[in-house]
Design brief:
This protein has about 290 residues and is mainly alpha-helical. Among the domains are: about 90 residues, MazG-like (Helix Hairpins, Orthogonal Bundle), CATH 1.10.287; about 60 residues. It has 12 helices and no strands. Helix 1 crosses helix 4. It is globular, with a radius of gyration of 26 Å. The chain starts with 16 loop residues before the first helix and ends in a 6-residue tail after the last helix.
Length: about 290
């Protein structure tokens, strides 16, 4: 006979959903009756899943799939509950502390809503005010920090972390004066990549420098580099699938075609997209399609 006791029955379906989810997580992490896999996990082992779920939320949004979005938001909520449960087991903080903290932050960052009522600013004005409040909060933290770059999480995706590191450095005056200066630097870094060919380590180093400067250009131009790359990925996937479909209609596959043939089909797919985009813009402006 096993000494393992039966797991507690989770709250019924009609219980408060968040309370039910937290009870389920407590059961999964129960030392005597929980799941061996869940009991083995810690913050570091769960962090990659947290990042993955955030990206899956972004993907559902990009696809405008509300069903998937609801599902992926649930998965992301599970990650919050998971980390909070592990922290509670260590006596660090709990789910209530996480929720209370973000409530206080939202009220603190929206004084025009919760303290004094509407102040007439538009959305852009509120963005400026929000950033000013965040800057004051950061300044208070930075007075306790050793350097301007402290607090930029090492586990962030590389593009996001590059942008945050650059923004931190810019706040203390270490920044290119203009986007034109960054463009000049991109040309310089591209030449250095060419010079590094044949040396794998140097090539990787120079390629990283070029990507870092590209992120800097995006920051100067107000572009989210991660969103831009996701958009480029989606565009490439869409057009390449169109090439595959065109070849399939001819009874062929990409491996049975030449690069020139695929390039021509790619250009056709690109032209169709642009024509469709122009047609949509004309209709939205009230023009009649010809």
């Amino acid at each position: 006979m096993s000494d393992r006791r039966a797991a507690p029955v989770p709250p019924p379906d009609d219980a408060d959903p968040v309370a039910r989810l937290r009870a389920i997580m407590r059961t999964l992490r129960d030392p005597a009756a929980g799941c061996p896999w869940d009991l083995k996990q810690d913050f570091a082992s769960i962090a990659p899943y947290t990042i993955e779920e955030a990206y899956e939320v972004a993907d559902a949004i990009a696809r405008a799939d509300m069903g998937d979005l609801a599902d992926e938001l649930g998965d992301l909520l599970l990650q919050v509950v998971y980390h909070a449960q592990m922290a509670e087991e260590q006596g660090a903080f709990g789910f209530e502390g996480v929720a209370a903290g973000v409530c206080a932050k939202m009220i603190r960052r929206h004084p025009h809503v919760f303290d004094h009522g509407p102040d007439g600013r538009d959305a852009d004005g509120q963005t400026v005010a929000w950033e000013a409040i965040k800057a004051a909060e950061r300044a208070a933290k930075e007075r306790e920090a050793a350097g301007a770059l402290d607090g930029v999480a090492a586990g962030l995706p590389s593009l996001t972390r590059a942008r945050k590191l650059q923004a931190r450095a810019a706040r203390v005056g270490f920044d290119w004066p203009s986007a034109a200066d960054v463009l000049d630097k991109i040309v310089e870094e591209a030449r250095e990549i060419e010079a590094a060919r044949g040396d794998a380590d140097a090539l990787e180093d120079e390629f990283g420098d070029l990507m870092f400067v590209m992120v800097n250009l995006a920051r100067h131009m107000g572009v989210d580099p991660d969103a831009a790359l996701r958009r480029a990925n989606a565009k490439f996937e869409r057009r390449f699938r169109a090439v595959e479909a065109a070849l399939a209609a001819q009874g062929r596959t990409p491996t049975e075609s030449t690069l020139a043939e695929m390039d021509a089909l790619w250009d056709e797919a690109k032209a169709r997209e642009r024509a469709a985009a122009g047609h949509g813009a004309a209709e939205s402006a009230g023009a009649k399609p010809r």
